[in-house]
């Protein structure tokens, strides 16, 4: 069975909620899905992590949430080859923070690309100023992503 890893970066649980809501959409099309709440470089770098979805919020001034900071640092410092990795990215943020809107999601996207990973489709940016429940945007986006990227295994 094909596997999908969902990597979560969250402070208050919004990104984890998105991960939990979209998980069954992948299971319905034939994936074994794991959600990583304390993601490590090992989780990301192993060859079986061929397909991943990142659900990532921003804190501080464009900073990574605490549960994700070590992984982002390890990628930057250890320079792993991530060319096996295809991924989607859902960034949660708040446009009232101005220039740092979705800063962690954008920084992660650039970091993954720098290390050879390939994003499938466009990045989704959910703005808390416009969308109260991030799931309302994330669920249809994932449905479309599965169809557009032909990820269905059933
Ligand atoms: C202390 C704090 C700092 C934040 N800084 C930013 C920021 O720099 N850029 C941004 O887009 N959103 C920022 N946000 C908004 C959060 O990213 C947004 O509310 C997100 O939905 C929270 O997701 P979570 O429930 O997964 O933690 C900040 C929120 C808090 C509480």
From TrEMBL:
Tagged with keyword NADP: no
A Pfam family assignment: Flavodoxin_1
SUPFAM superfamilies: Flavoproteins (SSF52218)
Domain Flavodoxin-like: 4-146
Alphabetized InterPro entries for the sequence: Flavdoxin-like (IPR001094), Flavodoxin/NO_synth (IPR008254), Flavoprotein-like_sf (IPR029039)
Top-level lineage group: Bacteria
GO CC field: cytosol
Keywords: Electron transport, Flavoprotein, FMN, Transport
UniProt KW Flavoprotein keyword: yes
Cofactor: FMN
GO molecular function annotations of the record: flavin adenine dinucleotide binding; FMN binding; oxidoreductase activity
The protein's name: Flavodoxin
Native source organism of the sequence: Modicisalibacter ilicicola DSM 19980
């Amino acid at each position: 069975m094909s596997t999908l890893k969902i990597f979560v970066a969250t402070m208050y649980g919004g990104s984890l909620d998105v991960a939990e809501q979209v998980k069954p959409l992948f299971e319905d099309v034939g994936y074994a899905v794991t959600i990583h709440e304390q993601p490590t470089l090992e989780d990301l770098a192993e060859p079986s992590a061929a397909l991943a979805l990142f659900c990532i919020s921003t804190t501080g001034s464009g900073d990574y949430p605490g549960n994700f900071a070590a992984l982002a640092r390890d990628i930057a410092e250890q320079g792993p080859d991530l060319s096996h990795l295809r991924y989607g990215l859902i960034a949660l943020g708040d446009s009232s923070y101005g220039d740092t809107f979705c800063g962690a999601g954008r920084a992660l996207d650039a970091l993954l690309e720098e290390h050879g990973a390939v994003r499938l489709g466009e990045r989704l940016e959910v703005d808390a100023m416009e969308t109260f429940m991030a799931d309302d945007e994330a669920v249809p986006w994932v449905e479309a992503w599965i169809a557009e990227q032909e990820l269905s295994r059933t």
